[in-house]
Amino acid sequence: MSESFGSPGQIQPLSVGNVVSAAVRLYRSHLKDYFLLALKAYVWVLVPVYGWAKFYALSALISRLAFGELVNQPESISSGQRYVNSRLWQFLVTMLLMFLIGMGIGLGVVVLFVLFGLLSAFVGLGQQGNPATYILIVLLTIVVSIAAIVVVLWLLTRFYLVDVPLAIEDNVDGTSTISRSWELTQGHVWRILFISFVAFLITIPAQIVLQILSAVIQGIFLPLINNNSAIFAPILAVFILALSFSTGAIILPFWQAIKAVIYYDMRSRREGLGLQLRDREI
User: Fold this and answer.
1) Which of 17, 20, 37 is CA-nearest to residue 250?
2) CA angle centred on 194, ends 193 and 199, rounded to 5°
């Protein structure tokens, strides 16, 4: 596998706390640059297909820039943009493939519950009036539901890094980046899930602020809309959209920094890359 950064060697694995702390420090030290990139990415969402690919590429660019900081090879935003733009259609391919994979996972879950529902109905009809049978069906439903959630989370986590190798490694395309993510995350699913859970807890305050601001804005505009909906309804929609994009642009760089640190850690563990976390604020 071609390496765009780093060199062979040995490194100690990062703890969950180190992963999150490194991501927070990266995010904090490059907040303005990452925020502007994320905001630009969200604006591109408004453009179908091409804009979605741009969103994916710009999001991955944040991870590329963060990874460059981690391995002491910082890169300018313009240089990183040229690299990810050269792979724009590969990002679109990855996005479409992941959509199909997601649809497949969802369809599999639906089929599982349909089959289980039919089996439960058949057993229930054969044991009418038997309380033990209904209790057993309820317990099995709970077990199957938990098992389905666990399997879905496991599968989604194996695809957690799909955008990062495409933004960093040379010999990776829109399809091989998916298998690359599968390779890197092997054996680390539950650890990545725990890191993601901790990161989610950190983002909760921003989500709460979004909900409060949204409620305040709607409270201000709703009386105006009742009097003149033709004018104020579009204005409210624009305010809510801008607020959503701004909040997303605050949160997205943190998640992409988390991905960059996890990617760094996974490559270190699997390939023994001689990557050293930068001492300067990281």
Assistant:
1) 37
2) 95
